[in-house]
């Protein structure tokens, strides 16, 4: 928190400096224009303006009459000298000075007033000859806009600087959160160390515990426990390293989440499809997750008079019996009961056990919790303790005969449907192949018939040629 | 800490080193990767800024390139699109500021 405050201060200081610079520059530029307006001899100031300003059109055009400017090559000077008598390349706001410049008393007696408005128009029309006139046109509207044109650059560059600073601070914040979690739950004598023999991602003893997959995604792997083949924890933190996302998160509240995937062994897990989540999320889950959709349904309330989870949470299960078996007294007391949930259950998002998951692993336990701050990692202890508890519970759990009959029938139905779909798919594929083969045959036949026709035609021509031939011979004999 | 299979009076040690498998990173096909919206937007802005010579668009393209770079996960795959967007954006900036190109005669004599 102190670090982010200090970095914010740095950013404010930087912004202030940049704003000051911008104001100074804009004032300087204004002075040049004013000087140019009042004085005809503003050429001394122009090179200064040129060095300060990058975009060529601005100062070039306004101070175009200064051929000493680096960007204007000598031909301008020549053209200026040539055009002096008739067309000054000055701006119309200074007609009097233009008149003084080129007005030759001998030649232009009696026409001082007509001449002055004309030359500015002429300069505007003669575009190809006088290249400075084009910037002239652009210069005119830009004259007042020059002081504004820097805003874009300054705002964007300052944003980029702040973005870079925020990248490093945000990255460090995220890493701190991840390391705090690992320090609490994955180091020596922590809960995962006591439950799993292999922690971390690499080989050997000194392996890194966390795998960093992006500036806001961290993974933790553990393996070597009964009933399960492994556990993968994925921490998805807010994108603190990205300034744009951070600003969006100020508006739309995001949160840091950690999700655990426990890969259960084949023989360890019985036919269980169960989920527990907050009410709204539970409804969404029931519609989105295919296995929940197919096998389970939202349970209304507790069976009989037994204790149940808090009102905020909803249970999705195949049968109430299974749900009751999985939501044990211990769990209610510790996390999901009335009193416990207030204190310890705030970080709980969802829990999903299934033996019919889509994907490579069929039997999985999924847990999702909200991550607290780096300093408050201890608040999650009870939630994390649910994981080994449920691994053991599910590992040992055997369905009763009633429940098993239900689940068996449901799964066999699903298997039959899947089989039928497969059959249909195979038949369709076969039909497609047959149709394709037919097409191929027809095309081949068509080709063959085309060839036959060609041969026939060739033969006909040959016959005709032969018929024609003997006449030739006869005539030769004569 | 070695795991003992003999049941201690309190609780069995749940760890089983024999069953430990090392971590295998799952293969993600390039099509399944999450869409890089910021890179896409950067390319759009860069092209608009280059073609229509809007300075603001080129600068916005640079900003979105920066965002895309910072969100880059897979170095090899993502770098191509980001570098393309950056090239467009820088070209746009150069044409806007240095006045390159056929329609700006200021650099010509």
UniProtKB/TrEMBL annotation, chain A:
Residues 1-28 form the signal peptide. Residues 464-478 have a biased composition (Basic residues). InterPro entries: CCDC47. It is a single-pass membrane protein. Its main location: membrane. This is Coiled-coil domain-containing protein 47. Keywords: Membrane, Signal, Transmembrane, Transmembrane helix. GO terms for biological process: endoplasmic reticulum calcium ion homeostasis. GO terms for molecular function: calcium ion binding.
UniProtKB/TrEMBL annotation, chain B:
It holds the Pfam family ASTER. Belongs to the Asterix family. One of its GO terms (biological process) is protein insertion into ER membrane. Its main location: membrane. It comes from Vitis vinifera. This is Protein Asterix. The keyword Transmembrane helix applies. InterPro entries: ASTER (IPR005351). One of its GO terms (cellular component) is endoplasmic reticulum membrane. Residues 1-23 are annotated as: Disordered.
């Amino acid at each position: 928190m102190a670090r982010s405050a200090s970095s914010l201060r740095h950013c404010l200081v930087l912004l202030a400096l940049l704003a000051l610079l911008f104001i100074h520059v804009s004032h300087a530029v204004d002075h040049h224009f004013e000087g140019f307006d009042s004085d005809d001899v503003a050429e001394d100031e122009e090179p200064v303006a040129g060095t300060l300003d990058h975009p060529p059109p601005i100062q070039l055009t306004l101070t175009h009459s200064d051929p000493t400017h680096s960007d204007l090559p000598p031909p301008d000077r020549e053209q200026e000298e040539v055009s002096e008598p008739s067309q000054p390349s000055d701006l119309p706001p200074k007609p009097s000075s233009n008149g003084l410049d080129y007005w030759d008393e001998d030649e232009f007696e009696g026409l001082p007033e007509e001449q002055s408005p004309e030359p500015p128009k002429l300069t505007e029309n003669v575009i190809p000859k006088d290249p400075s006139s084009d910037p002239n046109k652009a210069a005119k509207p830009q004259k007042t806009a020059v002081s504004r044109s820097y805003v874009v650059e300054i705002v964007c560059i300052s944003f980029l600087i702040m973005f870079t600073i925020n990248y490093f601070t945000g990255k460090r914040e995220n890493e701190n959160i991840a390391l705090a979690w690992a320090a609490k739950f994955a180091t020596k004598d922590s809960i995962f160390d006591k439950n799993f023999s292999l922690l971390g991602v690499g080989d050997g003893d000194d392996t890194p515990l966390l795998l960093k997959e992006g500036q806001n995604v961290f993974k933790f792997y553990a393996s070597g426990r009964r009933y399960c083949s492994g556990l993968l924890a994925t921490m998805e933190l807010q994108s603190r390293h990205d300034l744009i996302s951070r600003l969006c998160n100020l508006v739309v509240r995001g949160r840091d989440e950690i999700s655990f995937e426990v890969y259960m062994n084949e023989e360890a897990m019985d036919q269980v499809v169960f989920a527990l989540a907050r009410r709204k999320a539970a409804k969404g889950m029931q519609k989105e997750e295919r296995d929940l959709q197919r096998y389970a349904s939202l349970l209304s309330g507790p069976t009989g008079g037994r204790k149940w989870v808090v009102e905020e949470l909803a249970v999705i299960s195949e049968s109430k019996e299974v749900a009751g078996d999985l939501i044990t007294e211990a769990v209610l007391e510790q996390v999901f009961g009335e009193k416990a949930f207030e204190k310890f259950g705030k970080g709980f998002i969802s829990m999903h056990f299934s033996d019919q998951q889509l994907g490579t692993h069929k039997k999985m336990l999924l847990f999702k919790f909200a991550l607290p701050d780096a300093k408050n990692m201890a608040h999650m202890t009870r939630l994390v303790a649910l994981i080994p508890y449920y691994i053991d519970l599910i590992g040992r759990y055997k369905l009763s005969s009633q429940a098993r009959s239900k689940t068996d029938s449901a799964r066999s139905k699903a298997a039959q449907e899947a089989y039928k779909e497969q059959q249909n798919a195979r038949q369709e594929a076969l039909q497609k192949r047959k149709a394709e083969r037919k097409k191929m045959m027809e095309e081949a036949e068509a080709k063959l018939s085309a060839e036959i026709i060609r041969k026939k035609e060739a033969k006909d021509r040959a016959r005709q040629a032969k018929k024609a031939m003997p006449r030739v011979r006869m005539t030769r004999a004569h | 800490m070695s795991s003992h299979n003999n049941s201690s009076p309190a609780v069995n040690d749940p760890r089983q080193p024999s069953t430990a498998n090392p971590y295998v990173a799952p293969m993600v096909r390039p099509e399944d990767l999450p869409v890089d919206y910021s890179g896409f937007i950067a390319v759009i802005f860069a092209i608009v800024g280059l073609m229509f010579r809007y300075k603001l668009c080129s600068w916005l393209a640079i900003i979105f390139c920066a965002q895309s770079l910072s969100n880059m996960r897979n170095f090899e795959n993502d770098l191509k699109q980001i570098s393309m967007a950056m090239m467009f954006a820088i070209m746009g900036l150069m044409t806007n500021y240095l006045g390159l190109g056929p329609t700006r005669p200021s650099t010509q004599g």
